[in-house]
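README, section 4: Worked example with a bound small molecule

Sections 1 through 3 covered apo chains. Here we extend the same pipeline to holo records, where the ligand is supplied as SMILES alongside the sequence. The molecule in this example is zinc ion. Nothing else about the input changes; the structure line simply encodes the ligand pose together with the chain.
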Amino acid sequence: MTGDADYLVRAARHLAARGLSPGSSSNLSVRIGTRILLTPTGSSLSRVEAADLSEVSLEDGTVRTGRPSKEYPLHLAMYRQRPDATAVVHLHSPYATAISCLPPDEQGRAALPPLTPYRVMRLGDVPVAPYAAPGSAELAAGVELLAARAAVLLLAQHGSVVSGEGIDAAVDLAEELETAAQVTLLLHGRDPRTLPPDELAALRPPP
Ligand SMILES: [Zn+2]
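The generated complex, written as structure tokens:
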């Protein structure tokens, strides 16, 4: 538990230092058996301490200790649909949030064209959960519908939510999503090439 808490705090500080966690908006968690350890409500990731972390039951959503981020239903939704996931990162990072404000395509995929192999290999298709109020059951339900087929999601007009096997893997994916969003926006108004369609199927990760 102490080790998990320390890893979570280290990841929180890293994301804050990278400028990916404005204000007190973002939150992250790790799963330990049937519990999740989560960053607290209203706390900047730059200042969070292990003693501030909250514990929530994965089985029934009961808050066991502390005051978790009000967005904890998002985390529960990801863990319920992704049994291998042991960490979830939810960010309001600027570039991914900007992409979340663009309309998705007709398949509900984010406006993140296949510009580079790593964008496709690491992130796959990135679905966009419909807009609902932060912390609401409706938002969590939208995520739960998509999470079984995607470890990396955007929340419309809100930000990103990413799961991974371990906090480092989830942080890496969140950073790769932010970079893909940044590259996409850097090319706005240009006419970038995308990868050939026959290359894409081989690059996509398993769901
Ligand atoms: Zn949020």
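What to look for in the output: The longest helix spans residues 167-186. The CA atoms of residues 77 and 144 lie 5 Å apart.

Section 5 describes how to batch many such records.
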